[in-house]
Amino acid sequence: MVLDLPVTFSMRTVLAGYRFPFRWNPTHRARVGLLPRNGTAADIVWCAVEPCFVFHVANAYDDADGRVVVDVVAYERVFASAGGGLDTPGRLERWTADPATGRVDRRVIDSAPQEFPRIDERRFGRPHRYVYTGSVPADGNTQLVGATQIYKHDLATGERRVHEFGADRVPGEFVFVPAGPEAGEDEGWLVGLVIDTASDTTDFTILDAGAFEAPPVATIPLGHRIPPGFHGNWFPNQRAE
């Protein structure tokens, strides 16, 4: 799947002295490309989508009708102002790209501001039930850090569960770790870093994915503060050998 969305390189922005050269381009047609796994560029099928922008995809898979289903965090507009930046917060959506009609259907799963969607990575390329995301401040601050919650979305029931870390405790992107090779989709742990802005320290925190709202299973103080970040990963020991 190729996301071709209306953010493009702007020479005018570069010549104006801005360091970030990309801007929202309303004249650029938004589309999603479906490329067969063993295909070539000539085989790609383009599907039109309403203008928006996506940084991060949770997962994508083929459904029984030959469509591609993909869960994303989508923004209605980004980098439109002179200095760049996120003009609107992201929301969790499900896109269904249909090569037969050449269209993408967008459905909002959760309109709350959020980012960094993750799933049980054993489900990559297959239907999934749970998506984990980090909350984003809803006070007009569209920076991607500062909120104190992460979310667990149950796509079968439509339920959103919330883990609250407490005042001044800002979580990063949490990663799902299965309890074992045959564990259920939410049978395992969520691991990530939490910054305590009051004490300027960082903890490595482990949550029980099945008891998402419960206090952490473990909180491990680290030797120094680690700045906000994202895109951590976990893999079993045998993959590192």
From TrEMBL:
Source domain of life: Bacteria
Enzyme Commission designation: 1.13.11.-
Enzyme type, top EC level: oxidoreductase
Keywords (A to Z) from UniProt: Dioxygenase, Iron, Metal-binding, Oxidoreductase
Cofactors that this protein relies on: Fe(2+)
UniProt cross-references to InterPro entries, sorted A to Z: Carotenoid_Oase
GO biological process: carotene catabolic process
A Gene Ontology molecular function term of the record: carotenoid dioxygenase activity
Cofactor: how and how many bound: Binds 1 Fe(2+) ion per subunit.
Residues holding Fe cation: 56, 231
Sequence similarity: Belongs to the carotenoid oxygenase family.
Name of protein: Dioxygenase
